[in-house]
Amino acid sequence: MKYKKHLLFLPIVFVTMLVLIFSNTCNAAEKEEGFNAGPFIIEHVTDNYGWHICGDGDKSVTIPLPIMVFDNGHFVAFMSNKLHHGEAAYKGYAMGWGDQKGAIVKLADDYTGELVEGTTYPVDHVCKFNISITKNVCALFISLILIAWIFLAVAKQYKRRPDQAPKGLQALVEPVIVFMQEEVINPSLGKHAAKYTPYLLTLFFFILLNNLMGLIPIFPGGANLTGNIAITGILALITFFITQFSGGKEYWVDIVNTPGVPWWLKIPLPIMPFVEIIGIFTKPFVLMVRLFANITAGHIIVLGFISLIFIFGQMAPALGYGVSVVSIFFYLFMGCLELLVAFIQAFVFTLLSAIYIGMACGNEETPEIAK
Amino acid sequence: MELIKPSFGLIFWMLIGFGILFFILAKFAWPVITKGIASRNQKIQDQLDEAAKVHAELENLNVKHEQMLAEAKAERDSILNEARAISANMKEEAKVAADKEAQTIIEDAKKAIHFEKMKAMTDVKNEIANLSIEIAEKVMKEELSDKEKQEALIQKWVKDCNLN
Question: Which ipTM did the prediction report?
Fold first, then answer.
């Protein structure tokens, strides 16, 4: 009861801040070349070399992040603010443009300084081994530390107070763990559950926490990590490898000689085996695309609503403020929806991973939940 | 295209980072947490079972207790009845004894009375005799002046007295 008042106050402050920040951005954008929603949205859902917080152009506040590349056997590292959002080069290194957008390119000469518009800078090569700590990598590290800290703290609580009622963080996390174990992992994997529980729980909480962090609009969150195809791809790939390596003889026999299918689908032309083999790869591929698309779509919609403010603001500032009310309303609605999606997508990814692994293990109890 | 083009750096860091996270959690967090939950569940189940057992035992004990109570009541009743019988018996006996005593006392009293009466009678007789003699003497002193007559008369009276 005591906090209710403050809770009501919070969204008001939040909305005001958003409006102020974006109206600032809008004015800055207007002065230059006008607001263009497409690149604005894409820039926000993809990776960046710096962590942009607010403002635009020279007035922007950006956390510089280290750029690290192996170039011709040399390890080159410098902070991203030296590149001025791609408007400058440092020792011949610059952010790629056009086809090389998002990459670090080496210019023909070791040029340091501003890249003047209209001048052509010949590109020598694209740096292949680019392990820069980008915005997403930084968000990844933050979330990894956070997850490790949460669960080590919870584990410590279990050690320190064995067989006691859960308390604090433990009480928050335990029902989720128990739910995942009893509703997803155990029914899908049966007697093999204990072996795969650590991976599936790590997977679930990694996706969940990053989904939620992605919904926070400012610094520690805001990176579209689970909406990045590299991240979802790696997660799907790990599930793929675990599935294949835990697959017993029965699993492979079922793929080559699918039971319950007419013989003429197998013998002259191996249609069914072909479909099954494709299925091995489509399953993780779908996992990858589903998570990526869901999270990115959510971010794009939210950014779309925010962009509307500036599109209308360009026509007339008053119109922009008027639209902002509607936009913020829709933004809040989408935020709630995204909150739901964050849980659902983490759940679905883990559930399907568990089912795929369970099917490979030859767990007979699987179909009940798979239906 | 940038949106669906996985970048090398992110893949690299993701593999390392997720690997380390998985290693740390799989080694230090998940076993402790799952074991902790399982152990607590086991403990709760054990305690529930224990409670059920204790409850059953208590019920059993209650039944036993009631049985014992009933037995004790029965025993008490029997003891009481016995005591009552004994006391009644004793009363009867005492009554009989008292009656007997009374009878003997009465008898004794009667005897004593009879004895006393006899004694008193003898005394009275003697007194009367003495008185009679005294009277007779006086009468004789007056009537008998002649010695012979006197002797004869006395002889006669003495005879009469002895016969009596």
Answer: 0.85
